[in-house]
């Protein structure tokens, strides 16, 4: 009788420990998502702001609108922005894949 009771109590403790670990994992993930999302919210820029920034940068280089050099400057800035955006997406994918691998490894230990 005592053995059965002790076994049942141990099973409850194990279930409680597993529940706490799962909750802790969910909280950690939530904090990670919030921490990763905060900088992106601060960096959101409208198309008009991008155009104004590009225009100001090309003007500060001494280029006049309508000239071939000004058009090239605007195209170069656009290409640079697209390359940076692709690099950002690549970094996000790599971060996601690493997080998934860590999660799978952690889950396999349970």
Jot down its keywords.
110 residues; 3 helices
Q: Topology of this protein?
A:
Elements: H1 2-42, H2 47-60, H3 68-109
Helix pairs in contact: 2-3
* Morphology: elongated
Give the oligomeric state of the chains in this entry, treating copies of one chain as homo and distinct chains as hetero: single chain
Give the radius of gyration: 26 Å
Tally of individual helices: 3
The structural class is: mainly alpha
Low-confidence residue ranges: none
Overall mean pLDDT score?
80
User: Would you count the extended β strands for me?
Assistant: 0
What is the compact description of this entry?
By secondary structure, the chain is mostly helical.
Textual characterization of the structure:
The protein is mostly helical and 110 residues long. It folds into 2 domains: 1-44; 45-110, no CATH class. It is 88% helix and 0% strand. The protein is built from 3 helices and no strands. The protein has helices at residues 2-42, 47-60, 68-109. Helix 2 (47-60) crosses helix 3. The radius of gyration is 26 Å and the shape is elongated. The chain starts with a helix and ends with a helix. The model has no long low-confidence stretch (mean pLDDT 80).
């Amino acid at each position: 009788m005592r053995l059965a009771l002790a076994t049942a109590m141990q099973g409850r403790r194990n279930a409680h420990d597993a529940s706490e670990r799962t909750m802790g994992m969910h909280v950690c993930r939530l904090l990670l998502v919030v921490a990763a999302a905060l900088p992106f919210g601060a960096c959101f820029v409208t198309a008009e702001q991008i155009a104004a920034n590009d225009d100001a940068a090309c003007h500060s280089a001494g280029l006049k609108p309508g000239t071939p050099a000004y058009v090239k400057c605007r195209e170069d800035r656009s290409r640079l922005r697209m390359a940076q955006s692709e690099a950002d997406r690549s970094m996000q994918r790599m971060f996601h894949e690493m997080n998934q691998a860590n999660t799978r490894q952690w889950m396999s230990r349970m």
